[in-house]
Amino acid sequence: MSETTTGGGRRVNRRTLLIGGSAAGLGAGGAAYAARDELARMWWRLPGVDKPRKAGAVDQPGAEWIAASGANWRWADRPADYVIDRVVIHVVQGSFDDAVRVFRDPGHRAAAHYVVRRDGHIAQMVRELDVAFHAGNRSYNERSIGIEHEGFVSEPSSFTDAMYRASARLTASICERYDIPRDREHIVGHVEVPGTDHTDPGRHWDWDRYIRLVRAVRVTRTAK
């Protein structure tokens, strides 16, 4: 789930010009890459480019806020700087508590925006406007929202009715917020992300059922 250096998928804007122009004079090699990455993390400190943030606020009503380590995501201003047009479905290969623990660990270098528990409880760990390192592909990280699910890809019993329904409501809300079509082109599994070596959500994830549930949700649009 770690971020890669695969590029693309971004608009040319103040942020892009700042990073590109500053990195150009650094030369090749590891030092230049490190400096560029640091600039990418620091851009938000410029005045007037970040959206309002309120400590503990969630994008999904009813979700519990549990902050991921800042090493596992980066500040952004989505969808102003990156268009959000995908939802990526993950399975943690462990428990809800396992997912929360590793996403709060700065050494893990990965996190999803949300974690869904077997009983349908949802934790938000990264704000939707920020880029979570969840897909193993930089372009997909920048354009998507990642939803982690407790369980194991080899165990059909991991995927409960409560989990499917809660996750479907979450995905439907995300699709409504960002005008994402509720279809399999735009709601994808981690295994479908280009360049990934992951297999989740696995063959026991019932995509037909999930997409039906997502499409059945009626969402009242709110300002974003």
Estimated radius of gyration: 17 Å
**What is the straight-line distance between the termini?**
27 Å
The amount of beta strand, in percent, is 5-15%
Q: What's the total number of strands?
A: 8
Widest sheet: strand ordering: 1-5-4-7-3-8
**Structural class by secondary-structure content:** alpha/beta
| Helical fraction | 25-40%
Order of helices and strands: HHEEEHEEEHEHEH
Average pLDDT number: 84
Q: Helix count, per DSSP?
A: 6
Low-confidence stretches: 1-28, 43-48
Largest sheet: 6 strands, mixed
The gross shape turns out to be: globular
Domain N-acetylmuramoyl-L-alanine amidase: 73-202
InterPro entries: Amidase/PGRP_sf, Amidase_domain, NAMLAA_amidase_2, TAT_signal
Keywords: Cell wall biogenesis/degradation, Hydrolase
EC number: 3.5.1.28
What does this entry look like structurally?
Its EC number is 3.5.1.28. This is N-acetylmuramoyl-L-alanine amidase. It catalyses: Hydrolyzes the link between N-acetylmuramoyl residues and L-amino acid residues in certain cell-wall glycopeptides. It comes from Streptomyces rugosispiralis. Keywords: Cell wall biogenesis/degradation, Hydrolase. This protein is α/β, with parallel strands linked by helices and 224 residues long. It is 29% helix and 12% strand. It contains six helices and eight strands; from the N terminus they run ααβββαβββαβαβα. The protein has helices spanning 14-24, 30-42, 96-103, 138-143, 161-178, 207-216; strands spanning 64-65, 73-74, 86-91, 114-116, 122-124, 131-132, 144-149, 187-189. The strands form two sheets. The chain has a six-stranded mixed β-sheet with strand order 1-5-4-7-3-8, with helices on both faces. A two-stranded antiparallel sheet has the order 2-6. β4 and β5 (122-124) form a beta hairpin. The longest helix has 18 residues, at 161-178. The two termini are 27 Å apart. Residues 1-28 and 43-48 have low confidence and may be disordered.
